[in-house]
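Practice problem 4.
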């Protein structure tokens, strides 16, 4: 299904459909849907026509100014499409040609009787009416245009040979842009045009009153108790778009565990009722991750200019997955601008600013949007023209006590107070939000208030007031009209914040003129020379690679040829990907202007899927990358390194046979331990350990230091501290584990997650699901596990029961622990659905009750 804006011409006075959706069905027919605005509901779309792809079908392309002109012919009827240059048009035409090639192998004539049901359809409730083919498709002779260059018209083509001649004749005309669409170097030309347009964007961009209302509100798990009108309708004129973000929408366990909450509907309704009354808005997209929600509305008259809407989420909670912290984002195209809106909730607590920095970087790195063209890499946040970032960023005011902060607030000396703001300091140090802008803050901190009032926190903790709730942006031609908090709303312990931003847009006439000039210049230099690049180095060595520790080297390319070039890392023969799974090249493909250069990050990262074979020595840090230039030669790049074995990614059985730290073990011994079966004798005669010593060290540390730790196993640790803990476990130095209790707790979870065979082996998984409601049967299954696995299971269950005895201090309960640990101890060999997830939790809960042994 391709959303492909094009112009549909059916007569001498052409009919122009501003946006048309084209559905290329598996049964080889093209469905043409039309709408004059963005499709919000089914009523906005009508089925305009259906074109079978048969032996009588043919596509001929030519050029007209900045459009590719495609003539689709079926029997005696023909249709002219004018598609804009770009990857979407290329993908559409390639799919049409692929479908036609498949149909050309059929020997029998297809009658296409299925078309009759569409022609007989009438307009009614839920029924879409279409006109007969003849009503919308006319012969080319009736509307042949002048001014088309390299445009071909053919009729009565019956044989495959004639069709092949047609394809050859149209594909190899140098000035024909069908060549660009059909051949690989189209990507090069497309990128060159985009590059030149970016250089000259000042020529065709101007400010127009397209306003974005951005709002963020941490609602502390409350339901709407008051109108949001003072917040969302605070502007004198209605904004063109609303992007409204919430955090802590629902703090219940159901929302946390199953991402299900009735409050989504309640707050969405409250927002829709509070939008500016002087305009009508359409809900374009809503996305939610546990309590983080983002809603995107647009004025109905602008809806037709919205396209390519996608939404994604990423969790940054415990183990980097839980959705109690993280971000949701929506990206879309408005006119010619790619815009991304991010709503995030970062780590809490005043001392955790480094964790907040890490959350920000994780969101930027892990949140990716798929593209309609599957051959293109996903879009990251930073690949957009405009980025709006809102949310409870949780940065606090430090180095001032609560009394000094309140005194500065009473004096409205926000400028002085802002100097102590953690976010400002981190931005000044280029630690986070590089290239982003935040408006001047001239309102008092938005956190923390007593719920239902304007009084600062009077609880025992007496939180220091802070600007937790922020709005930032990145991009050109953006002006802020206001940035303020809204004290009138008292539902939460936070106050909502809003900003009104006005963005630039493209002057279509100036854009067209610039585009045509660029195309003319490119035509002059195309095919003049073979592209070439110079590589700064071709051999890369990564020293002492460790589990979950990122290493990167820079590959520099310089375009020393006479023309721009397109590069891409390509697969080697008999391999599915261009590199080993522990290696990535970023970017894997790209464009270099003449005389330009690009830096490619070669990144090595060993995770739970790649660690087992590297630990055992079955795999090495060795690979060859093939860098291919379009219409040029290939370059070979060597990547080598040495991996330091880790207990992370090593089996329970192997670890029980290691009395020394894993990095003190000879490689041959590691290989033998990993390869031996449960019935084989070990390489030495020593009795194996009951449980892995690494597991004991972590659990013992938590038992002695964190039994009453608040939010243990719920609050993430620091990545830097995890690295120290991993090194301690793998080398035996120092004698005691470093880092905070939260970091040790997360290290334990990561250890369990990395096991090649889970604590409950895969072979027992289905049996556990079947008897999950029977406690005695569950215990019987555990008694059947291999001895080392059984010991680990019982040891962990006993430890967790001790934690539950202190639930008044650590705020844990059976549901929380079952949810966190069941997914690690009982893993599915395949993807686990929600029903299975609940059964694993039910199974493990039997072992967390006080009566368990």
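Answer key:
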């Amino acid at each position: 299904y391709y959303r492909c804006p094009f112009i549909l011409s059916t007569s001498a006075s052409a009919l122009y459909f501003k946006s048309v959706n084209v559905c290329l069905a598996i049964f080889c027919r093209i469905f043409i849907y039309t709408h004059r605005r963005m499709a919000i509901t089914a009523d906005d779309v009508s089925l305009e026509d259906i074109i079978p792809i048969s032996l009588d079908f043919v596509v001929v392309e030519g050029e007209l100014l900045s459009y590719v002109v495609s003539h689709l012919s079926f029997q005696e009827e023909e249709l002219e499409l004018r598609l804009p240059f770009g990857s979407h048009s290329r993908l559409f035409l390639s799919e049409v040609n692929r479908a036609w090639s498949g149909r050309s192998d059929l020997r029998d004539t297809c009658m296409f009787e299925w078309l009759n049901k569409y022609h007989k359809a009438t307009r009614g409730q839920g029924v879409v009416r279409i006109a007969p083919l003849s009503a919308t498709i006319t012969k080319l002779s009736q509307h042949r245009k002048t001014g088309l260059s390299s445009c071909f018209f053919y009729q009565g083509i019956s044989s495959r040979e004639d069709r092949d001649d047609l394809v050859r004749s149209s594909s190899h005309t140098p000035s024909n842009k069908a060549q660009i669409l059909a051949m690989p170097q189209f990507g090069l030309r497309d990128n060159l045009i985009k590059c030149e347009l970016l250089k000259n964007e000042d020529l065709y961009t101007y400010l127009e009153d397209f306003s974005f209302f951005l709002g963020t509100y941490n609602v502390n798990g409350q339901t709407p108790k008051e109108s949001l009108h003072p917040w969302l309708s605070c502007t004198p004129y209605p904004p063109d778009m609303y992007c409204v973000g919430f955090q802590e929408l629902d703090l219940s366990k159901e929302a946390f565990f199953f991402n299900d909450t009735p409050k989504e509907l309640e707050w969405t309704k409250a927002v829709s009722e509070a939008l500016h009354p002087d305009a009508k808005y359409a809900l374009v997209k809503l996305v939610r991750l546990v309590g983080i929600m983002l809603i995107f509305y647009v004025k109905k008259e602008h809806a037709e200019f919205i396209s390519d809407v996608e939404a994604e989420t990423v969790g940054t909670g415990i183990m980097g997955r839980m959705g109690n912290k993280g971000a949701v984002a929506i990206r879309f195209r408005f006119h010619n601008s790619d815009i991304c809106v991010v709503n995030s909730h970062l780590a809490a607590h005043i001392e955790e600013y480094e964790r907040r920095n890490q959350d920000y970087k994780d969101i930027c790195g892990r949140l990716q949007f798929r593209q309609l063209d599957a051959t293109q890499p996903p879009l990251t946040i930073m690949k957009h023209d405009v980025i709006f970032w809102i949310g409870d960023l949780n940065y606090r005011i430090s180095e001032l006590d609560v009394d000094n902060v309140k005194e500065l607030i009473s004096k409205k000396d926000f400028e002085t107070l802002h100097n102590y703001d953690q976010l400002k300091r981190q931005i000044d140090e280029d630690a986070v939000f590089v290239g982003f802008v935040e408006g001047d803050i001239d309102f008092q901190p938005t956190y923390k208030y007593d719920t239902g009032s304007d009084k600062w926190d009077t609880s025992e903790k007496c939180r220091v007031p802070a600007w937790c709730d922020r709005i930032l942006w990145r991009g050109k031609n953006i002006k802020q009209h206001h940035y303020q908090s809204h004290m009138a709303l008292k539902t939460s312990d936070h106050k909502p914040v809003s900003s009104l931003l006005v963005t630039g847009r493209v002057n279509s006439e100036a854009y067209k003129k610039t585009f045509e000039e660029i195309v003319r210049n490119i035509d002059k230099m195309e095919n003049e020379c073979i592209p070439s690049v110079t590589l700064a180095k071709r051999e890369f060595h990564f020293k002492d690679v460790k589990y979950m520790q990122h290493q990167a080297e820079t590959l520099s390319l310089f375009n020393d040829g006479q023309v721009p070039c397109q590069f891409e890392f390509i697969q080697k023969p008999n391999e599915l990907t261009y590199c080993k799974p522990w290696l990535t090249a970023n970017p894997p493909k790209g464009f270099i202007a003449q005389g330009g250069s690009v830096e490619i990050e070669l990144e090595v990262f060993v995770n739970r899927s790649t660690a087992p074979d590297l630990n055992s020595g079955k795999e090495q840090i060795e690979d060859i990358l093939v860098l291919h230039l379009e219409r040029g030669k290939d370059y070979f790049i060597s990547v080598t390194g040495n991996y330091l074995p880790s207990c992370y990614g090593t089996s329970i059985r192997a670890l029980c046979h290691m009395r020394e730290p894993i990095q003190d073990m000879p490689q041959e011994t590691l290989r033998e331990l990993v390869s031996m079966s449960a019935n084989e004798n070990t390489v030495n005669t020593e009795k194996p350990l009951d449980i892995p010593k690494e597991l004991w060290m972590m659990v013992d540390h938590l038992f002695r230091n964190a039994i009453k730790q608040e939010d243990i196993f719920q609050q993430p640790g620091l990545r830097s501290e995890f690295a120290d803990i991993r090194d301690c476990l793998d080398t035996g130095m120092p004698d005691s584990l470093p880092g905070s209790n939260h970091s040790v707790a997360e290290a334990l979870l990561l250890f369990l997650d990395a096991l090649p065979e889970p604590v409950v082996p895969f072979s027992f998984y289905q049996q556990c699901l079947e008897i999950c409601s029977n406690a005695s049967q569950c215990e019987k299954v555990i008694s059947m596990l291999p001895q080392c696995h059984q010991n680990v299971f019982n040891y962990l269950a006993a430890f967790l029961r001790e934690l539950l005895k202190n639930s008044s201090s650590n705020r844990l309960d059976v549901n929380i622990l079952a949810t966190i640990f069941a997914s690690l101890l009982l893993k599915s060999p395949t993807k686990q659905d929600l029903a299975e997830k609940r059964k694993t939790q039910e199974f493990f809960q039997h072992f967390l009750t006080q009566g368990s042994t």
